[in-house]
Every structure is written in C-alpha cells, then in structure tokens.
User: What shape does this take?
Amino acid sequence: MIKLSKNSIVYIFAPSDIETGGIECSYSLAKVYKDLGINTKMVLIHPSIHCQHQFNWKEIISDPKHLEAIQIPQAYSKYITKEDVVNVVEDKPENLLIIPEIWPDALDAYVNIQKAIWWLSVDNGLGTDQKNFHLKLTDPKYLNIHHFYQSHYAYWFLLNHGAQYVYPIFDYINRDYIDKNLSFKNRKNVVLYNPKKGIEITQKLIEENPDIKFIPLQGMNREQLKKLMSESKVYIDFGHHPGKDRFPREAASCGCLIITSFKGSAQFFNDVTIDPKYKFDDTTEGVSELIRDIFDNFENHFNNFGLYRKMISNEEETFYRQVKNTYYEPQ
Assistant: This one.
C-alpha cells in the first residue's frame, strides 16, 4: 500500500492543452487528492512531446518556457489552477508519482519516489509506443510499481501479466450528464454513434437501414451533446472499448439505450453493466431488429438499464472512496 504523510506530494502526469475523456480523468484525480488534504501537483506535458519517444523529454519540460506555455483547458479549470502545475518532481521516498499508461517508461527517470501507473485503458497502453512495457511487469525492477485500474478489463489484464500491487480507481463522468428527472417519454427514433469507434460495423448498419436516422457525435460541445442524448433513444458503439469509455456512460445517464460490441471492457458486465442481448460480435446481424424493437417498445427496454444508470450516478462517490483506499497515513 502507498504511504502518504502530511509532507508528501502527489505528482500526476497528463497531456496539456487538449480535451479527451482519459485526460480529464487525470485532472479529476488531482482534485480528489487535493480534496483529501494531500499536496497535489500536476506535471502537464504538451502533446507534441512523447515520453516514450523523446529521450530528452524531462529536459524539455523542465524549461520554464514550457511551463509558461502550458494551457489548462477551460473545461478542466474546475479541477486545478495554474498554481497546481509544476515541471520538476521532487524525487523523494515520501512522494508519489502517477503516470498514465501511455507513458510507462517515464517512471525510469525517477529513482526514490513511490510510483504508480493509472491504466485508463489497456489497448492504448500496449505496442511499440509503450515499448511492450506490459511484458516487463514481472521484472524485479518494476515489481514495486503500484497499478491503478480504471476497468475490470484492465484488472484482468494486470493480473494475467504478473502485476503485484493493484487497486481499483474508477473514474466518473461529468456530473452535467446526470439527470435526476430522467424520463423515457418524448424521445425520438434516433441512433447516435461515435464516428471514431467501430465505424466499419456502424457504416454497414447505416447502409442496411436507410430509413433509420443515425447521427454522429462530433463537432458538438457538452451542452449540445447532452441535449441530443436526452432526446434520442439509442447509442451504439462497436469500438474496442480500451477502458470504461465515457460516451456510453454519458449517453446512458441521459436516457439513451446502449448497444455495444463484446470487445475490451464491453465484454465485462461490471464495466458495461447491461444485458448481453444488447452486445454483439463483429456483425450487424440482429442489430437492426433490436433497434426497431427499442423504438417500438422503448419503455420496456428503458427499464432494463436501471442498474447501469444507478452505477454511473454513484461513480463520483465510488471514486473518492477508492482513491482513499490506495494509501495510508502513518501515525
């Protein structure tokens, strides 16, 4: 277990200047540590700098000009301020360094500090970008690394690759998507989809059903997304689900019914907590029929997603509790 005292500093690495679901997780994690009374700093690195490829990344970010140029997206200003951002890590045993799974070898730049990787995805933390780091998990050099997993899919992956210290830290979607007065009424026969995920299957489905209206979720701000999700009936996602993706949870919390693949985290009921009849392999067979049945019998299907919506509504409380359970404070 991680040991944090009143003198400890938690450093959280994350890309700067851009907005994605995974990146927002790191900012929200910083807020939780701060709320728990722990001195927390973020080390933000411009997306043009990749810790796995640029051997001098540490030198680059330590330049005061890099720190000065860092931009915190407006959407994340509720989590941290510019005063929370630093570019130098105090490499001391009482401190903790948390790296996203996309930059695991960045841990090698520090010797004394406690180290953790937050596996916000599995698939994005594999391959040549990460230098097959997952194959090193049983190397004595890395046995003392702590691993936070954002999904049961990641938990399964870490256990099967010999990780020693693993803790759940599930993120939570933006509370703006939670509607306490959610209703199944007055919704349109519309299917929403993410054009960046599983587009091959989705495109085939669109071609097979010219009479069904499909709308891609792109080029919209949060308010526009929420409005569209709150008046539509279905969200489909046949992507790889490298972690617990946010779009399915956001759509479900707005009342959409979810249809997914069986890939990645979607294969785990604890990650995508919906009946398997709403999950499909790499085929469109049966999907059109299910969509039309949802359109015609929406209330019945809507009631099948109550557990998933409840889980999503409790995510923030779960998040705080899980972060607290990863460390102890010495007496």
